[in-house]
Amino acid sequence: MPRSTHRSSRTRTRTRRVVGVVVLAIAAAVMSPVTTARASGFYDPPAPVTGAPGTVLKTEPMTFYLDPLKAVPSTARATRVMYASRDRSGAPIAVTGTVLVPPVPWFGPGQRPVIGYAAGTQGMGDQCAPSRQLAAGSEYEGAFVSGLLTRGYAVAMTDYQGLGTPGTHTYMVREAQAHAVLDMVRAAQRLPGTGLPSGGPVMLAGYSQGGGASAAAVELAPTYAPELRLEGAVAGAVPAELGAVADHLDGSLYSAFALYAVAGQSAAYGLDLDGFLNARGASVVAAVKGECVGESIALHAFTRSSDLTKDGRTLTELAAAEPFRSIIAEQRIGRLKPAVPVLVTHSVLDDVIPYAVGRGLAHDWCTRGANVAFSPNITPTHVGGAVPSFAKQYAFLEARVAGLPQVSDCWWL
C-alpha cells in the first residue's frame, strides 16, 4: 500500500474513533439522570466573595473520567476550583471550574502552556456544570480535552457564572463569559502544587457557546487581564450575533438554546419577563433553568417563540424593540480587535449557528486589523462540524507553541 494511502486510512480511522467517542458522550449526557441537588457543599460560595479576579477561594481533588461507566480515568491531575470573578457589571462573584495537568513533564519549547478551555452548551441546571460532568464521565467534550492533555497542555475549564454555583447561568452574556474564562486561567496559574508558571503562555479555545466565550475573552484580555501572556485563541462556530442566531433557532430542533438565552440574559440584566411571557412561556423558561442540554432538546424541540409570548410576537420581533434590542447589541462579538492570532472555524452546513454569523465575525475582526485564520468545512450539522474544527484547533495551538507565524486569511474574507 502506498505510504500516503496508508496515512489517509489511519487518519480516517482516528476521525471515526473521535466521532464515536463524541456521539457516545452526547448520548450519555442525554440519558444521564437529571437532578438539581448539589453534589456537595463545594459549590456554595463564601459571602461575601473577596479577592482580586482569579483568586482561588477553595479547591478539592477530583477524577476526570473519559466514559460514563467510569472505567477509563484520565491520568491527569484534576482539581475542582472555586475562584473569584466578576459579572457583567463588574460585581464580585464566585465561579467554579476544573484545572487539569498532565502527569508528565512538559517537553515542548518554553514553559507548559495553559489552555483556557470554554465548554460548549451544557444546559442551565447546576448538575450540568463541566466540573461535574468531567467527574461523571458524561462531558461530551471530554475526548477533545483529553487530546489537549495528551499533547502536554494544562487545561483550565470554567463552569461559567451560575452553572454549579447559585443563581441562573448567564448563558451567552458576553462579558460574564469572558471574565469566567480569563479568571479561570488566572486561578490555574495561582493554584499551588501544579507546577504551572504564573507568567507562562496562555491560549484560549472553545466551540459553540465556548466559541463565543473564547472570542469574547480574546477581545477583552488586553484590558481585563493584561498580565496574561496570551499567544492565540480558537473560536469555533461562534454565535457572534445573537439576533440572527435566535431567528435561526426559533421553531427548530434546537429551540431550547434560544430559551437558554432568554433565561440567561434576563437574569444578568435583572429583566422581569412577566410582561412578555404568557403562562406557558413562563413555565417553559422556568423549566429550562434546571435542565441539561440533552433533556432540553428532547422536551422543547420545535417550540415556536410566538406561542410563549403574551402578544404572539416572536423572539426576533421582541429583539427589535427595547429593552431587548440594547441587551442583545451588548452581546455582539467582533467590535474589538484581538491582539493575538485567532482561528475562526465554522461548518457551512451548521444547523444551529448560521455560517454567515461565523464568517461575519472573521470579517469584522479583519476590518479591525486582526490576524485571522478562517477555516470553513462542509461537515453536516453543528455537532458534526465540531470534529474538523477540533483537528484545526490542535494544529493552531501547536503552531503557536512552536512560535510559527500565522498567515492571515483576511485577504479573501
Query: Helix coverage percent of residues?
Result: 25-40%
The proportion of strand residues reads 15-25%
Mean pLDDT: 91
Low-confidence residue ranges: 1-39
- Give, in order, the helices and strands: HEEEEHHEHEHEHHHHHHEHEH
Q: Describe the biggest sheet? A: 9 strands, mixed
Outline, from the CA principal axes? globular
Q: Report Rg.
A: 20 Å
Oligomer: single chain
Structural class: alpha/beta
Side by side, the strands of the main sheet go 1-2-3-5-4-6-7-8-9
**N- to C-terminal distance:** 40 Å
Number of strands: 9
| Total of DSSP H or I helical runs spanning 4+ residues | 13
Description:
Helices cover about 40% and strands about 15% of the residues. It has about 425 residues and is of the alpha/beta class. The chain has 13 helices and 9 strands. It has helices at about 5-30, 130-135, 140-150, 175-190, 210-225, 240-250, 255-270, 280-290, 295-300, 315-320, 325-330, 355-365, 380-400; strands at about 55-60, 75-85, 90-100, 115-120, 155-160, 200-205, 230-235, 340-345, 370-375. A 9-stranded mixed beta sheet has the order 1-2-3-5-4-6-7-8-9, with helices on both faces.
Task: Describe how the helices and strands are arranged.
Blueprint: H1 3-31, E1 56-62, E2 77-86, E3 92-101, E4 114-118, H2 130-136, H3 142-150, E5 154-158, H4 174-190, E6 201-206, H5 209-224, E7 229-236, H6 242-249, H7 255-269, H8 279-288, H9 293-300, H10 315-319, H11 324-330, E8 342-347, H12 355-367, E9 372-377, H13 382-401
Parallel strand pairs: 4-5, 4-6, 6-7, 7-8, 8-9
Antiparallel strand pairs: 1-2, 2-3, 3-5
Helix pairs in contact: 4-5, 7-8
